[in-house]
Amino acid sequence: MLHRVLPSERAWPLYDTAATRAREQAAQSELPPHTLMERAGLAAARLALATAPHARVVWVAAGGGNNGGDGLIVARHLAAAGKQVSVGLFGDPARLPADARHAYDTAAAAGVRFDQALPDDAGLIVDALLGIGAQQPVRAEMARLIERINACGVPVLALDLPSGLPADTGAARGRAVVRADHTLSLLSLKPGLFTADGRDHAGQVWFDDLSVDAAAQDATAILAGPPRVALRRHVQHKGSFGDVLVIGGAAGMGGAAALAARAASAAGAGRVFLGRLGGADRGFDELRPELMLRPAAELVQPMRLARATVVCGCGGGQVIAEWLPAVLAHAMKLVLDADALNAIAAAPALRALLAGRAARGLPSVVTPHPLEAARLLGSSAADVQADRLRAATRLAQSLSVSVLLKGSGTVIATPGQQPIINPTGNARLGSAGSGDVLAGWLGGLWSAHADWSATEAAAAAAWLHGRAAELGDQRLPLAASALVDALADALR
Ligand SMILES: NC(=O)C1=CN([C@@H]2O[C@H](COP(=O)(O)OP(=O)(O)OC[C@H]3O[C@@H](n4cnc5c(N)ncnc54)[C@H](OP(=O)(O)O)[C@@H]3O)[C@@H](O)[C@H]2O)[C@@H](O)CC1
Ligand SMILES: Nc1ncnc2c1ncn2[C@@H]1O[C@H](COP(=O)(O)OP(=O)(O)O)[C@@H](O)[C@H]1O
Ligand SMILES: [K+]
Question: What residue stretches are annotated with the YjeF C-terminal domain (predicted)?
Answer without folding.
Answer: 221-492
